[in-house]
Amino acid sequence: DQQVKQNSPSLSVQEGRISILNCDYTNSMFDYFLWYKKYPAEGPTFLISISSIKDKNEDGRFTVFLNKSAKHLSLHIVPSQPGDSAVYFCAASFTGNQFYFGTGTSLTVIP
Amino acid sequence: GAGVSQSPRYKVAKRGQDVALRCDPISGHVSLFWYQQALGQGPEFLTYFQNEAQLDKSGLPSDRFFAERPEGSVSTLKIQRTQQEDSAVYLCASSPGHPGGLLVSPLHFGNGTRLTVT
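Predict the joint structure of the above. Result:
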């Protein structure tokens, strides 16, 4: 059973506009959430994280929002750049010794 | 080294062969994880080490899969009698922290080993 879901397999956005990637989870015990970015033939690279005690965390162009009541998190990238084109995975953990990943969303930023 | 190193990058095995995949974590990282990523899917947890102790192996799909980290640094994932369904990218990740503590450390991934079983 998939505990972390990314329902949009792909997303296309014009350069300079906002990209919004969504993620839903089912386990209310999760208390730590992360976003990873993956280029082809490379491993996932950590992007940004958020603890369940917060509802927002910002790092430069990247902001993660957490809505615990809806069991939903989202990643906002603004402004989007062509170099942001990659597959984005959300992940969740409640003990720090097992991270559950979504199936990924492929983002294409069109110049 | 600067990051997590995995070898080989690519491995082709005939069905029934044994394979061994190596992971060199970031120096000093206590925690080491193995994940399996099938095509079009997200990484799926296989097993986790804290130093040399294998604390969780609940994700290993069968007893053909075996992992070790004897000195708390380099780890090897071994797959015996490979089957076609074992074809996937095997990712290793390390982190500096102690899971279960107050702070959770993000995982640092290697580039993976792509295993193809023919």
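The two ends of chain A are 38 Å apart (CA to CA).
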